[in-house]
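Re: the pair you flagged

First of the two:
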Amino acid sequence: RWLHQEAAVKSSDLLLQERMPYDAPVMEAEEIDLQTSEVAADIVLSRRRIVTADTPVPRTHLLSTGRYSLMVNNSGSGYSRWNDLDIIRWRSDPTTDLFGMFLYIRDRRENTYWSAAHLPTGKLADEYEVIYSLDKADFHRIDGDIDTLTEITVAPDADVELRRVTLTNRGRSSKH
Protein backbone atom coordinates (compact mmCIF):
# COMPACT_ATOMS: atom_id res chain seq x y z
CA ARG A 1 0.00 0.00 0.00
CA TRP A 2 2.82 2.43 0.90
CA LEU A 3 4.73 1.54 -2.23
CA HIS A 4 1.79 2.32 -4.50
CA GLN A 5 1.36 5.78 -2.93
CA GLU A 6 4.74 6.87 -4.31
CA ALA A 7 4.42 9.05 -7.41
CA ALA A 8 7.16 7.14 -9.25
CA VAL A 9 5.32 3.83 -8.74
CA LYS A 10 1.93 5.28 -9.67
CA SER A 11 3.34 6.57 -12.95
CA SER A 12 4.60 3.10 -13.93
CA ASP A 13 1.72 1.06 -12.54
CA LEU A 14 0.30 0.23 -15.96
CA LEU A 15 3.70 -0.97 -17.15
CA LEU A 16 3.72 -3.56 -14.37
CA GLN A 17 0.59 -5.12 -15.88
CA GLU A 18 2.12 -5.56 -19.36
CA ARG A 19 3.37 -8.94 -20.47
CA MET A 20 6.76 -9.47 -22.02
CA PRO A 21 6.55 -10.34 -25.74
CA TYR A 22 7.83 -13.77 -26.76
CA ASP A 23 9.75 -12.50 -29.77
CA ALA A 24 11.44 -9.44 -28.25
CA PRO A 25 14.84 -8.77 -29.83
CA VAL A 26 17.91 -9.01 -27.60
CA MET A 27 19.86 -5.77 -27.46
CA GLU A 28 23.33 -5.41 -26.02
CA ALA A 29 24.02 -2.47 -23.71
CA GLU A 30 26.44 0.10 -25.05
CA GLU A 31 29.55 0.42 -22.90
CA ILE A 32 30.48 3.97 -21.93
CA ASP A 33 33.81 4.94 -20.40
CA LEU A 34 32.66 7.36 -17.69
CA GLN A 35 36.18 8.70 -17.15
CA THR A 36 36.63 10.08 -20.67
CA SER A 37 33.11 10.32 -22.03
CA GLU A 38 31.35 13.64 -22.52
CA VAL A 39 28.19 11.90 -21.32
CA ALA A 40 29.66 11.67 -17.80
CA ALA A 41 29.05 15.38 -17.23
CA ASP A 42 25.34 14.93 -17.98
CA ILE A 43 24.78 12.00 -15.61
CA VAL A 44 22.87 13.12 -12.52
CA LEU A 45 22.66 10.73 -9.63
CA SER A 46 19.21 9.93 -8.36
CA ARG A 47 18.29 11.98 -5.28
CA ARG A 48 15.13 12.45 -3.23
CA ARG A 49 14.58 15.57 -1.14
CA ILE A 50 12.09 15.64 1.72
CA VAL A 51 11.55 18.85 3.70
CA THR A 52 9.51 17.50 6.61
CA ALA A 53 9.60 14.66 9.07
CA ASP A 54 5.83 14.77 9.37
CA THR A 55 4.63 12.71 6.40
CA PRO A 56 1.52 10.50 6.46
CA VAL A 57 3.66 7.52 5.46
CA PRO A 58 7.38 7.31 6.38
CA ARG A 59 9.70 7.84 3.40
CA THR A 60 12.36 5.15 3.67
CA HIS A 61 15.84 4.76 2.25
CA LEU A 62 17.75 1.48 2.08
CA LEU A 63 21.54 1.23 1.91
CA SER A 64 23.20 -2.18 1.65
CA THR A 65 26.34 -4.09 0.70
CA GLY A 66 24.42 -7.34 0.43
CA ARG A 67 25.61 -8.48 3.86
CA TYR A 68 25.10 -5.29 5.88
CA SER A 69 21.83 -3.41 5.44
CA LEU A 70 20.61 -0.13 6.83
CA MET A 71 17.13 1.35 6.52
CA VAL A 72 16.37 4.87 7.67
CA ASN A 73 13.24 6.95 7.24
CA ASN A 74 12.72 10.71 6.97
CA SER A 75 12.16 11.11 10.71
CA GLY A 76 15.46 9.41 11.56
CA SER A 77 14.34 6.00 12.80
CA GLY A 78 15.27 2.73 11.14
CA TYR A 79 17.26 -0.47 11.53
CA SER A 80 20.67 -2.02 10.88
CA ARG A 81 21.16 -5.65 9.98
CA TRP A 82 24.18 -7.87 9.34
CA ASN A 83 23.35 -11.08 7.46
CA ASP A 84 20.45 -12.48 9.53
CA LEU A 85 21.29 -10.63 12.76
CA ASP A 86 19.47 -7.47 13.82
CA ILE A 87 22.06 -4.96 15.03
CA ILE A 88 19.46 -2.26 15.66
CA ARG A 89 15.96 -3.63 15.81
CA TRP A 90 13.03 -1.81 14.28
CA ARG A 91 9.29 -2.32 14.29
CA SER A 92 6.96 -0.92 11.71
CA ASP A 93 4.82 1.24 13.98
CA PRO A 94 4.06 4.62 12.41
CA THR A 95 2.24 5.77 15.55
CA THR A 96 5.40 5.80 17.67
CA ASP A 97 8.26 5.09 15.24
CA LEU A 98 10.78 5.24 18.08
CA PHE A 99 13.13 2.46 17.03
CA GLY A 100 16.63 2.98 15.67
CA MET A 101 19.95 4.63 16.48
CA PHE A 102 19.55 8.18 17.72
CA LEU A 103 22.00 10.98 18.43
CA TYR A 104 21.27 13.93 20.69
CA ILE A 105 22.62 17.48 20.70
CA ARG A 106 22.51 19.61 23.84
CA ASP A 107 23.11 23.32 24.22
CA ARG A 108 24.15 23.60 27.87
CA ARG A 109 24.11 27.38 27.84
CA GLU A 110 20.47 27.56 26.65
CA ASN A 111 19.54 24.35 28.52
CA THR A 112 17.94 22.84 25.39
CA TYR A 113 18.39 19.58 23.51
CA TRP A 114 17.17 17.98 20.28
CA SER A 115 17.84 14.99 18.07
CA ALA A 116 20.27 14.97 15.17
CA ALA A 117 17.26 14.03 13.02
CA HIS A 118 13.63 14.53 14.08
CA LEU A 119 13.18 11.52 16.34
CA PRO A 120 13.13 10.55 19.15
CA THR A 121 12.66 13.99 20.72
CA GLY A 122 10.20 15.09 18.03
CA LYS A 123 11.31 18.68 18.53
CA LEU A 124 10.46 20.76 15.47
CA ALA A 125 13.42 22.39 13.79
CA ASP A 126 13.43 25.89 12.33
CA GLU A 127 14.39 24.22 9.04
CA TYR A 128 14.49 20.49 8.24
CA GLU A 129 15.63 18.65 5.14
CA VAL A 130 16.40 15.03 4.28
CA ILE A 131 18.25 14.11 1.10
CA TYR A 132 18.45 10.50 -0.03
CA SER A 133 21.25 9.79 -2.51
CA LEU A 134 22.39 6.50 -3.98
CA ASP A 135 25.21 6.21 -1.46
CA LYS A 136 23.96 7.98 1.68
CA ALA A 137 21.22 9.76 3.59
CA ASP A 138 21.70 13.36 4.78
CA PHE A 139 19.67 14.94 7.57
CA HIS A 140 20.05 18.71 7.81
CA ARG A 141 18.31 20.75 10.47
CA ILE A 142 18.64 24.26 11.83
CA ASP A 143 17.76 24.95 15.46
CA GLY A 144 18.34 28.59 16.36
CA ASP A 145 21.99 29.34 15.61
CA ILE A 146 23.03 25.67 15.30
CA ASP A 147 23.18 23.85 11.94
CA THR A 148 23.24 20.07 12.29
CA LEU A 149 24.21 17.86 9.35
CA THR A 150 24.05 14.10 9.86
CA GLU A 151 25.41 11.91 7.07
CA ILE A 152 24.68 8.17 7.14
CA THR A 153 26.22 5.61 4.78
CA VAL A 154 27.29 1.97 4.56
CA ALA A 155 30.94 1.37 3.72
CA PRO A 156 31.16 -0.43 0.36
CA ASP A 157 34.18 -2.54 1.33
CA ALA A 158 33.32 -3.44 4.94
CA ASP A 159 30.30 -4.52 6.95
CA VAL A 160 29.90 -1.25 8.84
CA GLU A 161 27.73 1.83 8.80
CA LEU A 162 29.22 5.29 9.16
CA ARG A 163 27.55 8.30 10.72
CA ARG A 164 29.10 11.74 10.69
CA VAL A 165 27.55 14.65 12.56
CA THR A 166 28.72 18.17 11.74
CA LEU A 167 27.65 21.01 14.03
CA THR A 168 28.03 24.61 12.88
CA ASN A 169 27.46 27.58 15.17
CA ARG A 170 25.99 30.44 13.10
CA GLY A 171 25.61 32.73 16.09
CA ARG A 172 27.94 35.33 17.58
CA SER A 173 28.35 33.68 20.99
CA SER A 174 30.21 30.47 21.73
CA LYS A 175 28.28 27.28 22.56
CA HIS A 176 29.16 24.63 25.13
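Second of the two:
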Amino acid sequence: MTARKAPSPFVKDADWEDADWEDVAVDRLADERLFEGVRGRRVVAFLIDLAVVGLLIFVLWAVAIGPVLLTFGLLHPLLMLATALLPFAYHTLCIGGPWHGTLGMRVMGLTVISTDGKSPAYPQAAIQTAIFMVTAALTQFLVVLVACFNDQGRCLHDYLAGTLVVNRWALSPGPAD
Protein backbone atom coordinates (compact mmCIF):
# COMPACT_ATOMS: atom_id res chain seq x y z
CA MET A 1 0.00 0.00 0.00
CA THR A 2 1.44 3.36 -1.00
CA ALA A 3 1.03 6.46 1.10
CA ARG A 4 -0.66 9.43 -0.52
CA LYS A 5 0.33 12.98 0.21
CA ALA A 6 -2.57 14.92 1.67
CA PRO A 7 -3.58 17.82 -0.56
CA SER A 8 -3.31 21.34 0.77
CA PRO A 9 -6.65 22.60 2.06
CA PHE A 10 -5.99 25.96 0.40
CA VAL A 11 -5.28 24.70 -3.11
CA LYS A 12 -8.28 24.12 -5.35
CA ASP A 13 -8.44 20.44 -6.19
CA ALA A 14 -10.59 20.41 -9.33
CA ASP A 15 -11.31 16.69 -9.07
CA TRP A 16 -12.48 17.04 -5.49
CA GLU A 17 -14.27 20.38 -5.73
CA ASP A 18 -16.36 19.33 -8.72
CA ALA A 19 -16.84 15.74 -7.59
CA ASP A 20 -20.24 14.25 -8.02
CA TRP A 21 -20.62 12.55 -4.68
CA GLU A 22 -23.25 10.25 -6.14
CA ASP A 23 -20.25 8.38 -7.59
CA VAL A 24 -19.31 7.32 -4.07
CA ALA A 25 -20.87 3.91 -3.77
CA VAL A 26 -22.76 3.32 -0.55
CA ASP A 27 -20.81 0.10 0.06
CA ARG A 28 -17.58 2.13 -0.22
CA LEU A 29 -18.70 4.00 2.90
CA ALA A 30 -17.82 0.85 4.86
CA ASP A 31 -14.15 1.44 3.98
CA GLU A 32 -12.30 1.97 7.27
CA ARG A 33 -9.90 4.49 5.68
CA LEU A 34 -12.77 6.98 5.41
CA PHE A 35 -12.99 7.17 9.19
CA GLU A 36 -9.31 7.04 10.18
CA GLY A 37 -8.52 9.86 12.61
CA VAL A 38 -11.92 11.49 12.15
CA ARG A 39 -12.68 11.87 15.88
CA GLY A 40 -9.51 13.77 16.74
CA ARG A 41 -9.58 15.87 13.61
CA ARG A 42 -13.21 16.83 14.28
CA VAL A 43 -12.17 18.24 17.65
CA VAL A 44 -9.39 20.34 16.09
CA ALA A 45 -11.73 21.41 13.26
CA PHE A 46 -14.31 22.52 15.83
CA LEU A 47 -11.71 24.62 17.63
CA ILE A 48 -10.66 26.22 14.33
CA ASP A 49 -14.30 26.95 13.51
CA LEU A 50 -14.81 28.41 16.97
CA ALA A 51 -11.97 30.86 16.26
CA VAL A 52 -13.34 31.66 12.79
CA VAL A 53 -16.85 32.32 14.11
CA GLY A 54 -15.41 34.40 16.95
CA LEU A 55 -13.48 36.48 14.43
CA LEU A 56 -16.60 36.90 12.26
CA ILE A 57 -18.61 38.05 15.29
CA PHE A 58 -15.84 40.50 16.22
CA VAL A 59 -15.91 41.95 12.69
CA LEU A 60 -19.71 42.13 12.76
CA TRP A 61 -19.65 44.07 16.02
CA ALA A 62 -16.81 46.32 14.86
CA VAL A 63 -18.80 47.26 11.76
CA ALA A 64 -22.21 47.50 13.44
CA ILE A 65 -21.42 49.21 16.71
CA GLY A 66 -21.29 52.66 15.08
CA PRO A 67 -24.80 52.46 13.60
CA VAL A 68 -26.11 50.98 16.87
CA LEU A 69 -24.71 53.92 18.81
CA LEU A 70 -25.93 56.46 16.24
CA THR A 71 -29.48 55.12 16.58
CA PHE A 72 -29.24 55.23 20.38
CA GLY A 73 -29.54 51.44 20.57
CA LEU A 74 -32.51 50.99 18.27
CA LEU A 75 -30.47 48.66 16.05
CA HIS A 76 -29.18 46.65 19.01
CA PRO A 77 -31.84 43.90 18.66
CA LEU A 78 -30.84 43.44 15.02
CA LEU A 79 -27.19 43.18 16.01
CA MET A 80 -28.03 40.57 18.63
CA LEU A 81 -30.09 38.60 16.09
CA ALA A 82 -27.25 38.73 13.57
CA THR A 83 -24.81 37.62 16.26
CA ALA A 84 -27.02 34.64 17.15
CA LEU A 85 -27.60 33.62 13.51
CA LEU A 86 -24.01 33.99 12.33
CA PRO A 87 -22.73 30.60 13.62
CA PHE A 88 -25.79 28.85 12.17
CA ALA A 89 -25.30 30.56 8.80
CA TYR A 90 -21.55 29.82 8.76
CA HIS A 91 -21.99 26.10 9.38
CA THR A 92 -25.00 25.69 7.09
CA LEU A 93 -23.48 27.57 4.16
CA CYS A 94 -20.13 25.81 4.47
CA ILE A 95 -21.52 22.28 4.87
CA GLY A 96 -24.18 22.68 2.17
CA GLY A 97 -21.84 24.55 -0.17
CA PRO A 98 -19.15 23.30 -2.53
CA TRP A 99 -16.66 22.54 0.26
CA HIS A 100 -19.06 20.18 2.06
CA GLY A 101 -17.53 21.23 5.36
CA THR A 102 -16.48 24.23 7.39
CA LEU A 103 -13.10 25.92 7.10
CA GLY A 104 -11.88 23.90 10.09
CA MET A 105 -13.04 20.67 8.46
CA ARG A 106 -11.33 21.63 5.22
CA VAL A 107 -8.04 22.36 6.98
CA MET A 108 -8.26 19.04 8.83
CA GLY A 109 -9.08 17.04 5.68
CA LEU A 110 -12.68 16.26 6.55
CA THR A 111 -15.85 16.45 4.50
CA VAL A 112 -19.53 15.88 5.20
CA ILE A 113 -21.53 13.48 3.05
CA SER A 114 -24.98 11.97 3.35
CA THR A 115 -25.31 8.38 4.46
CA ASP A 116 -26.31 7.50 0.90
CA GLY A 117 -23.02 8.91 -0.44
CA LYS A 118 -24.49 12.10 -1.88
CA SER A 119 -23.43 15.65 -1.12
CA PRO A 120 -25.49 17.30 1.62
CA ALA A 121 -27.78 20.02 0.32
CA TYR A 122 -28.44 23.24 2.22
CA PRO A 123 -31.60 21.90 3.93
CA GLN A 124 -29.75 18.84 5.24
CA ALA A 125 -26.84 21.05 6.33
CA ALA A 126 -29.29 23.35 8.14
CA ILE A 127 -30.90 20.37 9.89
CA GLN A 128 -27.51 19.02 10.98
CA THR A 129 -26.42 22.44 12.25
CA ALA A 130 -29.69 23.12 14.09
CA ILE A 131 -29.68 19.69 15.74
CA PHE A 132 -26.06 20.17 16.82
CA MET A 133 -26.72 23.60 18.31
CA VAL A 134 -29.85 22.53 20.16
CA THR A 135 -28.48 19.25 21.50
CA ALA A 136 -25.12 20.77 22.42
CA ALA A 137 -26.85 23.58 24.30
CA LEU A 138 -29.17 21.18 26.14
CA THR A 139 -26.51 18.64 27.09
CA GLN A 140 -23.45 20.85 27.47
CA PHE A 141 -21.76 19.08 24.52
CA LEU A 142 -22.25 15.58 26.00
CA VAL A 143 -23.85 14.56 22.69
CA VAL A 144 -20.42 14.39 21.11
CA LEU A 145 -19.61 11.46 23.39
CA VAL A 146 -21.74 9.36 21.02
CA ALA A 147 -18.72 9.51 18.67
CA CYS A 148 -16.70 7.46 21.16
CA PHE A 149 -19.08 4.52 20.90
CA ASN A 150 -19.22 3.87 17.14
CA ASP A 151 -16.62 2.94 14.54
CA GLN A 152 -17.38 5.87 12.25
CA GLY A 153 -16.98 8.63 14.86
CA ARG A 154 -20.52 9.88 14.25
CA CYS A 155 -22.09 12.27 16.72
CA LEU A 156 -25.78 12.43 17.62
CA HIS A 157 -26.45 15.23 15.14
CA ASP A 158 -24.86 13.14 12.36
CA TYR A 159 -27.22 10.25 13.06
CA LEU A 160 -30.30 12.46 13.25
CA ALA A 161 -29.41 14.43 10.09
CA GLY A 162 -28.30 11.39 8.09
CA THR A 163 -24.74 12.58 7.54
CA LEU A 164 -21.22 11.25 7.90
CA VAL A 165 -17.99 13.16 8.46
CA VAL A 166 -15.26 11.36 6.55
CA ASN A 167 -11.59 11.63 5.73
CA ARG A 168 -11.64 13.75 2.55
CA TRP A 169 -8.22 12.53 1.49
CA ALA A 170 -9.42 8.91 1.46
CA LEU A 171 -12.18 9.89 -1.02
CA SER A 172 -9.69 11.50 -3.39
CA PRO A 173 -8.63 9.43 -6.35
CA GLY A 174 -5.06 8.30 -6.02
CA PRO A 175 -2.63 5.72 -7.29
CA ALA A 176 -3.81 2.16 -7.17
CA ASP A 177 -3.08 0.56 -3.82
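The longest strand covers residues 110-114.

-B.
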